[in-house]
Amino acid sequence: MIQHKIVALIALLFFTACSSTPDNETPIAPPAVPESTTTSVSAAVPAELAQHSTTLTEPPPSLAAPKISPPPPSHHESPKGTEPAIALGWLKNGNIRFTKGYFRKDGKSKSDIKRLVAGQYPHTIVLSCSDSRVPPEHAFDQALGEIFVIRVAGEALDSSVVASIEYAVEHLGARLLVVMGHTHCGAIKAALSSKPGQSVGSADLDALVADIKPRISSIAATSDVSEASSKNASGVAEDLVKRSKILSDKVHDGTLVIKSAMYWLNSGTVSWLE
Ligand SMILES: [Zn+2]
Question: Rounded to the nearest whole angstrom, what is the distance from the C-alpha of residue 199 to the centroid of ligand 1?
Fold first, then answer.
C-alpha cells in the first residue's frame, strides 16, 4: 500500500514537471558556430606563427650540419654598398612576388632582429608617399634592414627628408635611391587643384603643396592625377640632385643611382620611369 502511494507520488511529480513547460516553447539550442569563424581563425594564424614555429624547430647554430658550399647571396647577407643594378633587380623581383602573392619567408625571424642590432646596410633608399596603400616593404617584398624608407605625402621635400637620404647614402652605404609616386595620390590631387594664394587648410599643408606644385606646373588641373604624380616623382629625383651636394657628388662619380617609379593601386605593380 505504501509502495503504491510512493509510485503515485512520483507519477504526480513527473506529470507536474512536464506540464509546467508550455507545448509551444521552442527548445533552447546552443548558438550555432558559423563555419566562417573556424575558417578565419585557422587562416589568421599561419603568417606569424608558422614563421615562429619554423624558427623554433631549427637546430641551434652549433648543432647545424656544416654547409658543403657557400649559400647563395641573399638580400640580408649583402655587404655594405650593394651594386645599384643588383639592388634594383631585387626590388623588381620583389614586386613580382608581391603582385603574385608569393612572399619571402626569410629576413624576419628573431635571429634577424638580433643580427641587425649590430648595424644596418640597406641596399636601397625608398622615398615614397605616406599613403597607407603604398608600403614599400610590402610592394617590394623586402625584409628587416634591407630598405631605408622615408615616407611623406606626395614625396614632398624638406630638410628632414633630404637629410635622411643623405645620412643613408653617406653613413649606411646605400647606392640606389628610388623615388616612388603612386596613382590616386591625394597630395598630388590637392596640389593639382589648388589655386595660387589659396590655402589648403593650414600653413604646413600649404608648405607641402607649395613644394609639389612647381613640379607639376605643366600639367593641366583637369588632367589625370597619375600623370601629375609621375611628373612629380621624376621631378623629386631631379630636385634632390640640385638641392644636395652630397647626393649630386655621389651621382656624378657613379656611386649613387637615382630612379623614379610609379606604384599602381589597381594592380600593385611598380613601373619604372626614365
Ligand atoms: Zn600619395
Answer: 19
